[in-house]
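[step 3/7] fold_predict: job queued, chain A
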Amino acid sequence: MEIKILLIEDNPADARLIKESILNTHDNFHLDWKERLSAGFLFLEETYVDAILVDLNLPDSRGLETFTKINEKFSEKPIIVLTGLNDKELANRAVREGAQDYLIKGEVDGLLLGRCIRYSIERKKNEIALREANQSEQASKTLYKQVVSMISDIVWRYDVNAKGEPVGSYISPVADRMLGLPDGTIGDSFDKYFSYVHPDDLPVLQKMLAEGIQKLEKDKTAEYRLQKVFSNLMDNTIRHGEHSTLVHTYYRTFAKGITIIWEDDGIGIPDDEKKKIFLRGFGKNTGVGLFLCKESLSITGIEIKETGKYGEGARFEITVPSGMWRTIEPDKG
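[step 4/7] structure written:
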């Protein structure tokens, strides 16, 4: 299948080199060339492309503003920045703002260019898929609450604190209605709900809740919290891995549990940031993702640390103690 590329470059000599490199990729690329950002915009509004190559310094737009303009209007397209040797820092800033990659003019050959384009397209697809999955998850949560609110029985959802005690994370609104209270009075607080229950009924209710939680806890294992952690690690690989194209996960057993290893082949994490990345507010996006991962895992005794080598990729080790994991036999049916 033909892969359509738009090149926005005002220098005919640089454009010719890119065209020659495209021909040397031996891939099924089709290249269109525009000399100004405004011309590129008009083309993109009428024509489908799979990726965009853009020089940051054009006659009608210069510097990081060039990337910002095109990314705001065509954020669903993978954008690869073209730069000179003296503008590498500017290109890096563009990557931090959302560009998929950058190439130095004069150092681009067919193999590098083809790989860069293909990987950028794939990373953008993964980025969009992850964003849509997160949006779908939020929509599912909203629908869940809407459905639960119509059930006549009280629906409880709980978490556990550091002491292993149940902590309400969701109580359906019917709890307020059953107690004759205004909507939102109970919220998600077990203690507040118990405070409105008649003292004679409270021991029975607490016993029923404890027995239900105990039954559920028998099947509660590490994957309950690891799902969100893996989602966050994948998001970080896509956002910050720069040239990352591969994720490898595996595990090793030891006397007191197992260690799950997550590795990618991106830029990695500098040595002086390996502990900081788990602090609240540290990072290039929200600054809370890895902080929440570590806090969530620590509740159940699971530990996470980063042990990769900068320049070779990120490597996270997640240590799960005995009793927090199980082996699932494959379905033989």
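[step 5/7] annotate
Residues 151-217 form a domain with the Beta-Lactamase fold (CATH 3.30.450.20).
The first helix runs from residue 12 to 24.
exit 0
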